Amino acid sequence: MDGRASIFLPPGGKTGTDDWSTPHDLYDALHREFEFTMDACPLTEGSAAGMPLFGTDRLMDSWRGQRVWCNPPYRREIGRWLAKALEAEVAVFLVPARTDTAWWHDHAMKAAEVRFLRGRLKFGGAKHSAPFPSVVLVYRGA
Predict the structure, then answer these.
(1) What digits encode the pLDDT tens for the residues 33-71?
(2) By 3-state DSSP, what share of the chain in percent is helix, strand and coil, each rounded to 5?
(3) Rounded CA gap, 5 and 32, in Å?
(4) C-alpha span between 57 and 80 (Å, rounded)
(5) Is the distance from CB of 141 to CB of 123 less than 8 angstroms?
(6) Complete domains list, the chain, with CATH
(7) How many C-alpha atoms does 67 have within 13 Å on its Cβ side?
(8) Closest Cα to residue 111, out of 74, 57, 70?
(9) What is the pLDDT of residues 87-133, one digit of tens each?
(10) pTM here?
């Protein structure tokens, strides 16, 4: 619900921020389906979904046995987050549909499911939709 998204061209017109919350209706539908136990990138301590926080750098935490929600920063290190996915029981990511990037070919293509979202999302309280399409990646690992 509070997953972070870093956008190269922020939909809300703000610049210099990585904090863009997941649309509530999208998160709620995915949470009902997957019953997340961990928010890997919460915007605030104490994740609004009430999921436990496992440390300040969730890339260093174990995801084993977890049902992970992750709306990671959309910068170059996105591949590091996606590489962690197969460690979890289930990991669900909201990421931009950037099919021309190395991280897409190296990591997104390993997802069990790729769900392209119709239209463009409005993140958080943004006035405008994101300037790119989004995708939900579902990984089924350990």
Answers:
(1) 999 999 998 876 444 454 544 445 678 889 999 999 999
(2) 20, 20, 60
(3) 21
(4) 12
(5) no
(6) 24-140 (3.40.50.150)
(7) 9
(8) 70
(9) 999 999 999 999 999 999 999 999 999 999 998 888 877 788 788 89
(10) 0.80
